[in-house]
Design brief:
- One of its GO terms (cellular component) is cytoplasm.
- GO terms for molecular function: catalytic activity.
- This is Protein HTATIP2.
- By secondary structure, the protein is of the alpha/beta class.
- The chain is built from 5 helices and 6 strands; from the N terminus they run E-H-E-H-E-E-H-E-H-E-H.
Length: 170
């Protein structure tokens, strides 16, 4: 494990060398980092990490994005997620897998009251529609590993929430 300073990520290029696969789940919230900080973390840091990984020999990059990601969106969150998807794809990995989960079900250390309320509601809805509104983070993690162990022929593969559920439970 290497601890890096994301504000000086280029100084840590050696940490990105010699890896066949890169997994990226980096992200923050607008509430925690402000609009500029959110863009810096969720787009700029991720894109720079992808570039360093590719330069270091990474062949397959797996990015956790978000359902509804769209570089043309009027909503900052979805626009930034769409922009970073485009930037990561442009890096030129042999394989790039982008997962677009819906609401992530997990326990967090910090308090996010609105997310907690949504998770309670969506947790109940998940009993009826288990793959539509949400996904446990453990399922996303298993899907990320599975897509590397069973790579397809396509250069870029997008996995929406239903596919994440299927792959994460296989």
């Amino acid at each position: 494990q290497a601890v890096v300073d994301f504000e000086r990520l280029g100084d840590h290029a050696a940490a990105f060398q010699g890896h066949d696969v890169g997994f990226c789940c980096l992200g923050t919230t607008r509430a925690k980092a402000g609009a500029d900080g959110f863009v810096r973390v969720d787009r700029d840091y991720v894109a720079q990490a992808a570039e360093l990984a590719r330069a270091g020999g990474c062949k397959h990059f797996v990015l956790q994005s978000s359902r509804g990601a769209n570089a043309q969106s009027r909503f900052l969150y979805l626009r930034v997620k769409g922009e970073v998807e485009n930037l990561v794809q442009a890096v030129g990995f042999d394989h790039c897998t982008i997962l677009r989960p819906a609401v992530l079900l997990c326990k967090r250390q910090e308090s996010r009251p609105m997310e907690w309320i949504a998770q309670q509601f969506l947790g109940a809805v998940a009993w009826v529609f288990p793959t539509f509104y949400s996904v446990p983070v453990e399922t996303v993690a298993r899907a990320m590993v599975a897509c590397v162990l069973q790579p397809g022929k396509e250069k870029v593969k997008m996995l929406e929430n239903g596919a994440i559920h299927r792959l994460g439970k296989a």
